[in-house]
UniProtKB/TrEMBL annotation, chain A:
Keywords: Cytokinin signaling pathway, Phosphoprotein, Two-component regulatory system
Protein name: Histidine-containing phosphotransfer protein
Domain HPt: residue ranges: 38-143
Protein encoded by which gene: LOC104746578
Recorded superkingdom: Eukaryota
Main location: cytoplasm
Subcellular location as annotated: Cytoplasm, Cytosol; Nucleus
UniProtKB/TrEMBL annotation, chain B:
Designated name of the protein: Two-component response regulator ARR6
PANTHER family according to UniProt: TWO-COMPONENT RESPONSE REGULATOR, TWO-COMPONENT RESPONSE REGULATOR ARR6
CDD domains (UniProt xref): REC_typeA_ARR
Database matches in SUPFAM superfamilies: CheY-like
Subcellular compartments: Nucleus
Gene designation per UniProt: LOC104740534
Pfam families: Response_reg (PF00072)
Native organism taxonomy: Eukaryota, Viridiplantae, Streptophyta, Embryophyta, Tracheophyta
InterPro entries: ARR-like, CheY-like_superfamily, Sig_transdc_resp-reg_receiver
Length: 154, 190
């Protein structure tokens, strides 16, 4: 694949993530904050998100797995995850967290277990897609090309 | 007259107080989230601000010198032009931090902005009542930061200009040979 084709692939791939609602405009904000002086800004923030999320999901699994679930412990974790996913534009993860928090409020253990599964699913999905996106970018940069700016014409 | 005024102006430029560098606002950002700290730091740097980021209200108080129990004074020489804090933080909340800052003599005039991912009206009201400058919904936008910076710069500029004018007029009064009546008129103009 030549450079132009790679750049087109990247643009199409990125657009699809927005169209599927996996990412929202906040991700664009992140991209706009990246420049020659901070060329890895987006991947740095996203990496922090992955690290935080892995930890939180682990803690949530433990908390929900207890004989008696302490929702005072569960809710702050979900709140944190909701916040960080919102900050990077991981829309579906954020939305899943909103639903999760509602069930926490109701102290509905069964529903919370289902919510956790849903959040995990959305998280692994966005993680997978973003890792692919960064790989595409790396290929372009390695070939001496520039990352094209995303234009959302829809 | 010009020769008399110039030395005063140069004094102002070398003044280590906040009027010394009107272009660089120093912002203290407080957030327990890694992701949000990285994000807000970048937003502020891109907006030409000097940034100090801490991960808790306790650390913010330490930085400001407000962490000692009976000391509600703080570090007098520390120049912070704006404090931006997350609302929900473990331990001390942003609201509690806001109160401590407003109680201190060194930092009560520093504008404090609260950031929150939750649009809860009573919360917003409470913060504004306690003296918060503004309440921003997360994720914070670059336009929010620019708007804050611009309004703060205007305040700094106005103060700088007022002080300069006052000094100029006082200098004129000392060195002018105008009649006492005219000098009095100049004074009332301020």
């Amino acid at each position: 694949m030549d450079l132009v084709q790679m750049q087109k692939s990247l643009q199409d791939y990125t657009k699809s993530l927005f169209l599927e609602g996996i990412l929202d405009s906040q991700f664009l904000q992140l991209q706009q904050l990246q420049d020659e002086s901070n060329p890895d800004f987006v991947s740095q923030v996203v990496t922090l998100f992955f690290q935080d999320s892995d930890r939180i999901l682990n803690d949530l699994s433990l908390s929900l797995g207890q004989q008696v679930v302490d929702f005072k412990k569960v809710d702050p974790h979900v709140h944190q995850l909701k916040g960080s996913s919102s900050s990077i534009g991981a829309q579906r993860v954020k939305n899943a967290c909103v639903v999760f928090r509602n069930f926490c409020e109701q102290q509905n253990v069964e529903a919370c277990h289902r919510c956790l599964q849903q959040v995990k699913q959305e998280y692994y999905l966005v993680k997978n897609r973003l890792e692919t996106l960064f790989k595409l970018e790396q290929q372009i940069v390695a070939s001496g090309g520039m990352i094209p700016a995303v234009e959302l014409g829809f | 007259m010009a020769e008399v005024l110039l030395p005063r102006k140069m004094e102002m430029a070398n003044d280590p107080s906040k009027f010394g560098s009107p272009d660089l606002l120093h912002v203290l950002a407080v957030d327990d989230s890694h992701v949000d700290r990285k994000f807000i730091e970048r937003l502020l740097r891109v907006s030409s601000c000097k940034v100090t980021v801490v991960d808790s209200a306790t650390r913010a108080l330490q930085y400001l010198g407000l962490d000692v129990e009976d000391k509600s004074v703080g570090f007098e020489d520390l120049k912070v032009n704006l404090i931006m804090t997350d609302y929900s933080m473990p331990g001390m909340t942003g609201y509690e931090l806001l109160k401590k800052i407003k109680e201190s003599s060194a930092f009560r005039e520093v504008p404090v902005v609260i950031m929150s991912s939750e649009n809860i009206l009573p919360r917003i009201d409470r913060c504004l009542e306690e003296g918060a400058e503004d309440f921003l919904l997360k994720p914070v936008k670059l336009s929010d930061v620019k708007r804050l910076r611009d309004s703060l710069m205007k305040v700094e500029d106005l103060s700088f200009t007022k002080s300069t004018q006052k000094r100029e007029l006082e200098t004129e009064n000392v060195y002018s040979f105008d009649s006492p009546v005219q000098s009095q008129l100049k004074r009332t103009k301020i």
